[in-house]
């Protein structure tokens, strides 16, 4: 199951909801490790392809132009840091010039806009005046004899010249006013920017950005802390399992164990039931779906795959373990554990994955851990890196070793049945 999640880089939301916070963090750590591994593979592949391309290009263009980095006395690429090299201007001077340049550009931009408005007003003013004067002259001289039209033309040209001269004077005067306003505005902007820099004033946008940055850094630190804790837990469990000699080998060591058809399973309520034999399996070929989708399919899976592996049995006996339960919900498990002491636990068949859920009573509530049984071993999904050959091995291991370093969960007391017949009866019928 874990390998499938890492291969697809996706976990079903319903399955994710079954994981506690510790399992989620360790699963996130493993997925992040897989992302880094894939990224390194892509980078290495890209580097090799780039090397091949460079080699091919050099072969084709051995006499062509190429770029060579300038190197310093130490053999490394030469780097110039503004303001630190000999002859560079001090940072304060550079900052001062940048502020002055920004103020000058802003004032120039405002002056250009004012000049466009002023020029439009001047053009319109004199165009209208010229049109009115021309209309007046035409109206007065139109009826004059042809001999007087030349005089009218000369008079019109004279007036036009005078108007153009006045327009040019108006333009020069307007340009001078705009230039003076630009200089004043540049000084105002420079002083304003300088004052803001000296007093460390920030706009609302800057303050909002800084607040978002602070929150982001805090979240990053929290994720890093959880990831470190997950890595430490992963290493601790691996080392401890090796020391205890309980890291799982291959489950085929146990698959050779056959059950006697005449043996009986002694249930916790002392009632006897015959143990199904391997030959009693359905004549139909069992092919496990990708996910459990009904109780009938889960029961079939348990009979076909888990009974031969002695899942739920006590070690070296044919008795059902006291901690084993059938297909019950999380709510039913918590009701069974409600009045129990801290460290009480039970194992129930999961409806979400091919495996089990270990429900644990802690002082302040309950915890639920998924146990992956989709392969040839048993292990906690996202928490315990150790692989156990049988479900009983996993339970016995964590009677002595805590499940997580943060929670310190030890399996102290099994929670038995409260129903008759037991809730696991359908699994052995």
From TrEMBL:
Q: Which Gene3D superfamilies match?
A: SH2 domain (3.30.505.10)
Give yes or no: UniProt keyword Membrane.
no
* Span list, region Disordered: 194-235
Listed Basic and acidic residues bias regions: 211-235
Signal sequence span per UniProt?
none
Which controlled-vocabulary keywords does the entry list? Coiled coil, SH2 domain
**PROSITE patterns recorded for this chain?**
SH2
Q: Which InterPro entries match?
A: SH2, SH2_dom_sf, SH2D4B_SH2
Q: Where is the SH2 domain positioned along the sequence?
A: 323-415
* Coiled coil start-end: 144-185
Respond yes or no to whether keyword rRNA-binding is given for this record. no
Offer one Pfam family short name for this entry.
SH2
Q: Which cellular component appears as one GO term in the record?
A: cytoplasm
Q: What is this protein called?
A: SH2 domain-containing protein 4B
Which species is this record about? Nipponia nippon (Crested ibis)
